[in-house]
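Moderator note: this is an archived Q&A kept for reference. The question asked for a predicted structure of one protein chain; the sequence and the answer are reproduced below.
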Amino acid sequence: MDLEVRHLRVICAIAEAGSLTRAAASLRMTQPGLSAQLRRIEAMLGGAIFDRGQAGAVPTALGELVLPRARAILPGIDGLLSDTVRAARCGTTPGRIRLGSAGAPLLTELIVATRELIPGAEVTTRCRRSPSPLLDDLAAGRLEAAVLGDNPGHELPPREAVVLCPVATEPVFALLPSAHPLAAGDEVRLEELIGEDWALPHPDGDRTREYWSSVFSRTGRQPHAPYEAEGQQLIDVVRAGLAVSLCQATFTEVPGVAVRPLFRSPLWYRHVLGWRRDGPLAAHGDVVVRRVAEGYLAACAAAPAYARWRRRHPELPRLSGRAGGLTAW
C-alpha cells in the first residue's frame, strides 16, 4: 500500500479528536476499522504515530514529526483539487460525463444507459481497484457516476453530494484450480478451503480484506496467503494450481479454473451505484438503476455457477429497494 492523501486525513482526524473512538465517529467509520487502518499507516511510516491509552490518542515522537507536515500538505491538496475541479467545469463540454468502476460487471450497462439517456454525450471511464477513491472523486465532482461496492457491516460512508443506491447483493464464491479435489463438489466449505495456500488482492481502503478476515476468524484460522495478485495475474496463479482465492459470483469460468459457491454463503458483496446529486444523471436515477439491474440479471444467467446457485436459492436475491434494486440483506 502507498501512502495516500486520505491516510493523512485519518492521522489528522485522530489527532484533532484525541481518541480513535471520536475520530471514527467523525470519519463515519467503525472504531475497529479505523484502528486497522491506523496500523497499516503506521506500518508504512515505520512506527507508532500515537500512544493509545486511557488518556486517548497522544502523538509519539514520530507522530510529532508527521502531523505538522500532514497539516501543512492538506490545505494545498484541497486547494489544488478545488481549483482543478472548477477549471475543469469551466473548460469542459457540457455533454461530457465521467464514469468510474471498482471492478464489477455493471460498468458496461451504466455506459449504455448513460448514452441512451443523454444522447450525444461524451462518456469517459476510470477504473480503480478500490471504491474508496471513486467515492472521493464523486464527492469532489471529478466523476458524475460510478459503480461501487461494499460488504455487510462495512458499508460505504454517506457523502452529502452523492446518492448511493444498492443494485444487487450476491454471495462471494471460491476460485479454484479446475483439477483441485474441492472443485469436484457443488459447494466448498470455507473450513476446508482455509487450509490451502491463497492468492489475495492487495489490501485497499474499501475494508474488504478486513471483512474477509472477520469471517475467516470464525473458522479459527486465517489463510496462508503467500501470493498477492489480482486480475489476470490472480487467475494465472490459481490456474497453475499454486493457490485458491475468492471471486464475485458473476465471474465467468475460464479454462483451468473452477468457480464454486461457499457452503451456506458466509461472505457477501453488494454492488452500489453512486451519482452526483447535482449531476446530469440525477434526474434519471431510477431509470439508470433499473437498466443496470437488468444487465446484472443477464450477467447472473451467463455465469454457470451463479445460475445454478440461484436456481437452488430462488428467494435470493429478491427485488426490493429503489427502482427494483436486488438485495439479500
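Archived answer notes: The radius of gyration is 21 Å.
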